[in-house]
Write a structure and sequence with these properties.
alpha/beta, two-stranded antiparallel ribbon
Amino acid sequence: MSSVLRPPATGTEPSGATKYRPVSSHLAIAPPVSVVIPAMNEAENLPYVFKTLPDWIHEVVLVDGNSTDDTVAVARALRPDVKVVEQRGKGKGDALITGFRACTGDIIVMVDADGSADGQEIVSYVSALVSGADFAKGSRFANGGGTDDMTFIRRVGNAALCAAVNRKFGARYTDLCYGYNAFWRHCLDKIDLDCTGFEVETLMNIRVVTAGLRVQEIPSHEYLRIHGVSNLRAVRDGLRVLRVILRERANRRAPRGGRDRSPVPGAVPARPARQVRQARQARRKAS
């Protein structure tokens, strides 16, 4: 049998076949990839972010959080086909959920707009997904990863929270609070995100594990924010992450203690303990 791939006859192409495109010498083809970038007043950083994005991605979805600078104008000048979505709520979690809904690609990649992520790493995430993973999770502490933008307090907090998630949910993460991830779009139906703030990454990491999805960590390097100041607050957002962990743990335990006690059709109802004792005493006297 010949190993040469022949183009299909005109009119016989399978649905969606033309969506697959060559990527690199390491990854021959890939399904359409949507990149979601939540941004608020990131006009100065977008040129650096867009410059690193691979030219083979399907679409860029920019979620604008009511920016007061030229974020939207800059994005459209850099990439005329960018899909701009207006965020109606507040917070990073709300922005990502809004962006996910607007995606049309089979694979979704989440990238921060501050210039801390290298878009060239996307090929590693996509490679993991097409190789069998459901969720490709970026890690700054996996072998080959690193960070230039983490204070001692944030490092300790991230390690403690990561250890808590691993212990309580049976995960094996090396990093928890990192926003560079990729996944198949169908995963959204299984994790059902419902948070608004920076705790969104933690919620995703917990729910992909509890849903039984296949996770692969991808070594990633986090660079310093190029311009501006981060909205992240270590203590405030750390407490939000902790509350999410406790809530998800409580929700996971709830079904065990909330068993259905309604009678089973055809089953003989159990007698009260008092009646059982009286019946035993009557049998002893009779004997």
